[in-house]
């Protein structure tokens, strides 16, 4: 009874931590909206209000965006969020934060189902939830409008449903067939949300089939259920498969190393080098990254405690009772890292987010191994206490680094200042808030893709946009003092452009304290 009460309170703490780390200052940290967030937010708004995206494609399966194509589901879900909460950065990030929080309990259930013969599997499930709730890697991708975190949510709960189905003695009740539908829908949703899961989810699902086959005593029924789930899943994925093979859904594959103009030897050398970089301590512990949009640099993607326990989990492969889970965890790490390893940009925390589940399963295996080695209660208590204390120290350090240092340093990477600058421009465009209307708005394009922020802030109907709704705006990367001679024009320039900042009517400051935009109004 006492043990159950402790687990209950621990679960409550996990819930509170999950909500706090993912929703506190959600619209302020990271400060600024990336191109991708703006595109997801605007196209979600456009498709919900007009059934068309910015290119006037009707209810597309792939959304064209900045020379690439985005998977659709996160955009449709985001349209619902902005319809309810308004066109704000918080509203764009809300469904991703919610998906991140719900993933935590999905992972706990997954751990529980992966340990059917473990006496303490409920305790390890709570530990798994806690590890994910406090994970820097997962926290970051739950707080920004990137599709990988939402896809992880769908996949995790899909795998939970899959294992539950495979572990049933019989599938005969109506609720069981409903569960088949829900499970396959979630697994399909993961592929409709982001590109990397198109490779990762089928391989991990196959690995789970093999894992369950090894531990199951009902192999005949298991095979039949596997076939049924696979068939239903393929039916749900048929529109996506068609888009990938015959449409534009497979455009991202051109970035894979296999499609680069290199020799076979060079390709395999590149894959080996990418693997070393993606799995290196400099990435996992030091946060090596190519852009702060993907987090890192000021904090590692794994805490040192998690990393050490994961290394211990690797050695659990040599223990018969723990071998299967450790092998599955290693497979998850490798499969989850494949989209990054096979890509042209490494390390890549966004594409490799699914690997996090493998690292955490390895850490759990490491904890189980220590419990196997040290059987005395006082030794176990000491190990648990030291591990929790160290882990909380690293969590506290991450909290300070993320919400203070990273929040300031990431201003440029998150295109900080765009939203505020376009809100100012909108006031002059309409002659509102005491601002005189202007005949032209000259806006700097130095930071890239300014039009999508204009569409987002103005909440422009995509049909009107294609009809010339932005004709008042001129986007240019060449703004100089000569432009101040224009009549009745609002000029929004960047500090590095040749315009005297002391003549600015207003200045937009980023979270790093630096000037992002200078606003001028000519007569």
List the helices and strands and how they pair.
Layout: H1 2-23, H2 35-50, E1 63-65, E2 68-70, H3 73-85, H4 89-114, H5 121-133, H6 136-142, H7 147-167, H8 174-193, H9 197-215, H10 219-246, H11 264-278, H12 281-284, H13 304-315, H14 320-341, H15 355-373, H16 377-409, H17 418-430, E3 440-444, H18 450-458, H19 462-466, E4 473-476, E5 489-493, E6 506-509, E7 515-521
Parallel strand pairs: 3-4, 3-5
Antiparallel strand pairs: 1-2, 5-7, 6-7
Helix pairs in contact: 1-4, 1-5, 2-3, 2-4, 2-18, 3-4, 4-5, 4-6, 4-7, 5-15, 7-8, 7-9, 7-10, 8-10, 9-14, 11-14, 13-15, 14-15, 17-18
Describe this structure in words.
The protein has 523 residues and is mainly α. It folds into two domains: 2-409, no CATH class; 418-521, no CATH class. Helices cover 61% and strands 6% of the residues. It is built from 19 helices and seven strands. The protein has helices spanning 2-23, 35-50, 73-85, 89-114, 121-133, 136-142, 147-167, 174-193, 197-215, 219-246, 264-278, 281-284, 304-315, 320-341, 355-373, 377-409, 418-430, 450-458, 462-466, and strands at residues 63-65, 68-70, 440-444, 473-476, 489-493, 506-509, 515-521. A five-stranded mixed β-sheet has the order 4-3-5-7-6, with helices on one face. A two-stranded antiparallel sheet has the order 1-2. Helix 1 runs parallel beside helix 5, helix 7 (147-167) packs parallel to helix 9 and helix 8 (174-193) packs parallel to helix 10. The longest helix has 33 residues, at 377-409.
């Amino acid at each position: 009874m006492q043990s159950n009460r402790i687990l209950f309170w621990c679960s409550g703490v996990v819930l509170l931590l999950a909500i706090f780390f993912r929703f506190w200052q959600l619209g302020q940290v990271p400060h600024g909206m990336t191109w991708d967030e703006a595109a997801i937010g605007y196209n979600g708004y456009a498709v919900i209000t007009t059934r068309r995206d910015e290119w006037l494609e009707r209810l597309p399966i792939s959304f064209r965006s900045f020379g690439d194509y985005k998977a659709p589901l996160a955009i449709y879900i985001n349209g619902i969020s902005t319809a309810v909460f308004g066109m704000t950065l918080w509203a764009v990030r809300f469904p991703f934060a919610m998906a991140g929080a719900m993933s935590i309990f999905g992972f706990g259930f997954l751990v529980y189902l992966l340990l059917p013969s473990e006496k303490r599997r409920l305790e390890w499930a709570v530990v798994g939830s806690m590890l994910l709730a406090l994970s820097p890697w997962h926290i970051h991708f739950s707080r920004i409008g990137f599709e990988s975190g939402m896809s992880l949510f769908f996949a995790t709960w899909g795998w939970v449903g899959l294992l539950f189905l495979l572990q049933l003695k019989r599938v005969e009740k109506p609720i069981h067939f409903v569960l088949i539908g829900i499970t396959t829908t979630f697994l399909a949703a993961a592929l409709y949300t982001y590109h990397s899961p198109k490779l990762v989810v089928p391989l991990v699902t196959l690995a789970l089939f093999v894992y369950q086959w090894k531990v199951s005593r009902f192999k005949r029924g298991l095979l039949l259920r596997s076939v049924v789930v696979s068939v239903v899943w393929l039916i749900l994925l048929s529109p996506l498969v068609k888009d990938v093979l015959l449409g534009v859904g497979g455009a991202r594959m051109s970035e894979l190393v296999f499609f680069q103009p290199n020799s076979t030897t060079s390709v395999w050398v590149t894959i080996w080098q990418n693997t070393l970089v993606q799995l290196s301590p400099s990435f996992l512990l030091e946060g090596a990254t190519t852009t702060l949009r993907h987090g890192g640099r000021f904090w590692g993607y794994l805490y040192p405690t998690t990393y050490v326990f994961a290394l211990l989990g690797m050695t659990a492969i040599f223990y018969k009772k723990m071998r299967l889970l450790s092998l599955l965890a290693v497979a998850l790490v490798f499969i989850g890292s494949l989209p990054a390893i096979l890509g042209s940009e490494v390390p890549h925390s966004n594409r490799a987010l699914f690997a996090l589940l493998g690292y955490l399963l390895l850490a759990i295996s490491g904890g189980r191994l220590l419990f196997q080695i040290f059987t005395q209660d006082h030794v176990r208590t000491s190990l648990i206490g030291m591990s929790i204390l160290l882990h909380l120290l690293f969590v506290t350090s991450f909290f300070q680094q993320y919400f203070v240092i990273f929040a300031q340093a990431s201003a440029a990477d998150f295109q900080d200042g765009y939203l505020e600058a376009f809100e100012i421009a909108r006031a002059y465009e309409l002659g509102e808030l005491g601002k005189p209307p202007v005949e032209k708005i000259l806006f700097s394009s130095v930071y890239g893709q300014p039009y999508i922020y204009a569409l987002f802030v103005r909440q422009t109907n995509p049909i009107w946009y294609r009809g010339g709704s932005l004709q008042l705006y001129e986007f240019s990367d060449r703004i100089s003092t000569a432009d101040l001679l224009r009549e009745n024009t609002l000029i929004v320039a960047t500090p590095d452009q040749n315009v005297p900042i002391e003549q600015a009517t207003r200045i937009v400051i980023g979270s790093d304290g630096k000037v992002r935009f200078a606003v001028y109004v000519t007569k």
